Protein backbone atom coordinates (compact mmCIF):
# COMPACT_ATOMS: atom_id res chain seq x y z
CA UNK A 1 0.00 0.00 0.00
CA UNK A 2 2.87 2.36 0.73
CA UNK A 3 4.12 2.30 -2.89
CA UNK A 4 0.74 3.64 -4.03
CA UNK A 5 1.10 6.53 -1.60
CA UNK A 6 4.68 7.22 -2.73
CA UNK A 7 3.76 7.23 -6.40
CA UNK A 8 0.80 9.50 -5.68
CA UNK A 9 3.03 11.85 -3.68
CA UNK A 10 5.56 12.02 -6.50
CA UNK A 11 2.92 12.82 -9.10
CA UNK A 12 0.00 14.60 -7.43
CA UNK A 13 -1.07 17.05 -4.73
CA UNK A 14 -1.62 16.46 -1.04
CA UNK A 15 -5.37 15.92 -1.48
CA UNK A 16 -4.65 12.99 -3.79
CA UNK A 17 -2.12 11.67 -1.26
CA UNK A 18 -4.76 11.86 1.49
CA UNK A 19 -7.16 9.91 -0.74
CA UNK A 20 -4.46 7.29 -1.46
CA UNK A 21 -3.79 6.93 2.29
CA UNK A 22 -7.51 6.59 3.05
CA UNK A 23 -8.03 4.01 0.28
CA UNK A 24 -4.96 2.06 1.42
CA UNK A 25 -6.27 1.93 4.99
CA UNK A 26 -9.73 0.86 3.81
CA UNK A 27 -8.24 -1.88 1.63
CA UNK A 28 -5.98 -3.01 4.47
CA UNK A 29 -8.94 -3.19 6.87
CA UNK A 30 -10.90 -5.28 4.36
CA UNK A 31 -8.07 -7.71 3.50
CA UNK A 32 -6.25 -8.19 6.81
CA UNK A 33 -8.19 -9.62 9.74
CA UNK A 34 -7.67 -7.66 12.98
CA UNK A 35 -7.97 -8.86 16.57
CA UNK A 36 -9.83 -5.78 17.75
CA UNK A 37 -10.95 -2.32 16.82
CA UNK A 38 -8.02 -0.92 18.82
CA UNK A 39 -5.61 -3.02 16.74
CA UNK A 40 -7.24 -1.75 13.52
CA UNK A 41 -7.17 1.88 14.71
CA UNK A 42 -3.55 1.61 15.85
CA UNK A 43 -2.53 0.06 12.54
CA UNK A 44 -4.41 2.74 10.60
CA UNK A 45 -2.87 5.55 12.68
CA UNK A 46 0.66 4.19 12.30
CA UNK A 47 0.19 3.68 8.58
CA UNK A 48 -1.17 7.21 8.25
CA UNK A 49 1.84 8.67 10.10
CA UNK A 50 4.42 6.69 8.15
CA UNK A 51 2.69 7.17 4.80
CA UNK A 52 2.24 10.90 5.35
CA UNK A 53 5.89 11.31 6.39
CA UNK A 54 7.04 9.44 3.29
CA UNK A 55 4.63 11.49 1.17
CA UNK A 56 6.00 14.76 2.60
CA UNK A 57 9.54 13.65 1.76
CA UNK A 58 8.43 12.82 -1.79
CA UNK A 59 6.62 16.14 -2.15
CA UNK A 60 9.72 17.95 -0.84
CA UNK A 61 11.88 16.12 -3.36
CA UNK A 62 9.49 17.08 -6.14
CA UNK A 63 9.63 20.74 -5.06
CA UNK A 64 13.43 20.65 -4.86
CA UNK A 65 13.56 19.14 -8.34
CA UNK A 66 11.33 21.90 -9.70
CA UNK A 67 13.55 24.52 -8.03
CA UNK A 68 16.69 22.86 -9.43
CA UNK A 69 15.14 22.88 -12.91
CA UNK A 70 14.35 26.59 -12.55
CA UNK A 71 17.91 27.35 -11.40
CA UNK A 72 19.31 25.28 -14.28
CA UNK A 73 17.19 27.25 -16.75
CA UNK A 74 18.31 30.58 -15.25
CA UNK A 75 21.95 29.50 -15.28
CA UNK A 76 21.70 28.44 -18.93
CA UNK A 77 20.19 31.83 -19.82
CA UNK A 78 22.92 33.71 -17.94
CA UNK A 79 25.59 31.52 -19.53
CA UNK A 80 24.21 32.28 -22.99
CA UNK A 81 24.20 36.00 -22.21
CA UNK A 82 27.76 35.88 -20.87
CA UNK A 83 28.95 33.91 -23.91
CA UNK A 84 27.31 36.47 -26.19
CA UNK A 85 29.00 39.34 -24.36
CA UNK A 86 32.39 37.65 -24.30
CA UNK A 87 32.29 36.87 -28.01
CA UNK A 88 31.27 40.39 -29.05
CA UNK A 89 33.07 42.63 -26.53
CA UNK A 90 36.87 42.86 -26.85
CA UNK A 91 38.49 41.24 -23.80
CA UNK A 92 42.20 40.91 -23.08
CA UNK A 93 43.48 39.20 -19.92
CA UNK A 94 46.99 39.91 -18.71
CA UNK A 95 49.59 38.22 -16.55
CA UNK A 96 50.93 40.14 -13.55
CA UNK A 97 53.92 41.24 -15.62
CA UNK A 98 51.69 42.81 -18.30
CA UNK A 99 52.04 39.96 -20.81
CA UNK A 100 48.94 38.96 -22.74
CA UNK A 101 47.46 35.76 -21.29
CA UNK A 102 44.41 35.57 -23.57
CA UNK A 103 42.67 37.66 -26.14
CA UNK A 104 39.18 36.87 -27.39
CA UNK A 105 38.34 37.00 -31.13
CA UNK A 106 36.64 40.41 -30.82
CA UNK A 107 39.82 41.94 -29.35
CA UNK A 108 41.99 40.23 -31.96
CA UNK A 109 39.78 41.66 -34.71
CA UNK A 110 39.95 45.11 -33.13
CA UNK A 111 43.76 45.04 -33.11
CA UNK A 112 43.90 43.27 -36.49
CA UNK A 113 46.06 40.40 -35.21
CA UNK A 114 45.89 36.67 -34.58
CA UNK A 115 44.78 36.02 -31.00
CA UNK A 116 47.24 33.15 -30.46
CA UNK A 117 50.21 34.96 -32.00
CA UNK A 118 50.24 37.70 -29.34
CA UNK A 119 49.94 35.36 -26.37
CA UNK A 120 52.87 36.09 -24.03
CA UNK A 121 53.82 39.39 -25.67
CA UNK A 122 53.68 42.67 -23.76
CA UNK A 123 50.33 44.45 -23.83
CA UNK A 124 52.06 47.81 -24.16
CA UNK A 125 53.17 46.73 -27.64
CA UNK A 126 49.48 47.07 -28.61
CA UNK A 127 48.67 49.97 -26.30
CA UNK A 128 51.86 52.08 -26.03
CA UNK A 129 50.63 54.32 -23.18
CA UNK A 130 49.68 51.34 -21.03
CA UNK A 131 51.57 51.30 -17.73
CA UNK A 132 52.71 47.71 -17.18
CA UNK A 133 53.62 48.44 -13.58
CA UNK A 134 49.92 49.12 -12.89
CA UNK A 135 49.03 45.49 -13.59
CA UNK A 136 50.53 44.30 -10.33
CA UNK A 137 50.57 46.80 -7.55
CA UNK A 138 50.32 45.76 -3.86
CA UNK A 139 47.47 48.18 -3.06
CA UNK A 140 45.51 47.39 -6.22
CA UNK A 141 42.52 45.08 -6.16
CA UNK A 142 41.90 42.74 -9.06
CA UNK A 143 39.67 43.95 -11.84
CA UNK A 144 39.64 46.44 -14.68
CA UNK A 145 42.57 48.81 -15.13
CA UNK A 146 41.80 52.39 -16.01
CA UNK A 147 43.85 55.04 -17.76
CA UNK A 148 44.47 58.38 -16.07
CA UNK A 149 42.98 60.01 -19.19
CA UNK A 150 39.94 57.73 -19.16
CA UNK A 151 41.05 55.80 -22.26
CA UNK A 152 44.08 54.35 -24.00
CA UNK A 153 44.89 54.43 -27.68
CA UNK A 154 45.59 51.10 -29.28
CA UNK A 155 47.73 50.38 -32.30
CA UNK A 156 46.56 47.96 -34.95
CA UNK A 157 48.93 45.64 -36.79
CA UNK A 158 48.91 48.03 -39.77
CA UNK A 159 50.07 50.92 -37.52
CA UNK A 160 46.74 52.75 -37.35
CA UNK A 161 45.88 54.01 -33.87
CA UNK A 162 42.41 53.97 -32.36
CA UNK A 163 40.90 55.03 -29.03
Structure description:
- The protein has 163 residues and is mainly alpha-helical.
- The chain folds into two domains: 2-87; 89-163, 2-Layer Sandwich (Beta-Lactamase), CATH 3.30.450.20.
- Helices cover 53% and strands 7% of the residues.
- It is built from four helices and four strands.
- The chain has helices spanning 2-11, 14-31, 37-88, 105-111; strands at 92-94, 100-103, 154-155, 161-162.
- The strands form two sheets. It has a two-stranded antiparallel sheet with strand order 1-2. Strands 3-4 form a two-stranded antiparallel ribbon.
- Helix 1 (2-11) packs antiparallel against helix 2 (14-31), helix 1 (2-11) packs parallel to helix 3 and helix 2 (14-31) packs antiparallel against helix 3.
- The protein is rod-shaped.
- It starts with a helix and ends with a strand.
- The mean pLDDT is 87.
- This is PAS domain-containing protein.
- Residues 78-139 form the PAS domain.
- Pfam families: PAS_8.
- InterPro entries: PAS, PAS-like_dom_sf.
Main beta-sheet strand count, sense and barrel state: 2 strands, antiparallel
Percent in strands: 5-15%
- Helix coverage percent of residues? 40-55%
Please identify the structural class as seen in this structure: mainly alpha
Count of discrete alpha- or pi-helical segments spanning 4 or more residues? 4
What separation lies between the terminal Cα atoms? 74 Å
Number of strands: 4
**Low-confidence residue ranges:** none
**Rg (CA only):** 33 Å
Tell me the strand order in the biggest sheet: 1-2
The ordered H/E elements are: HHHEEHEE
Number of domains: 2
Q: Given the C-alpha coordinates, what overall shape results?
A: rod-shaped
**Overall pLDDT:** 87
Amino acid sequence: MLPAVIITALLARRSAVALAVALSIALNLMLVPRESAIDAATNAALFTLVAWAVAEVCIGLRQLRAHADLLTHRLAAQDALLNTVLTTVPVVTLETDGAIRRMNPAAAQLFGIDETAVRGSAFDSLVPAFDTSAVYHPEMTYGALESADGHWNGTRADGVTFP
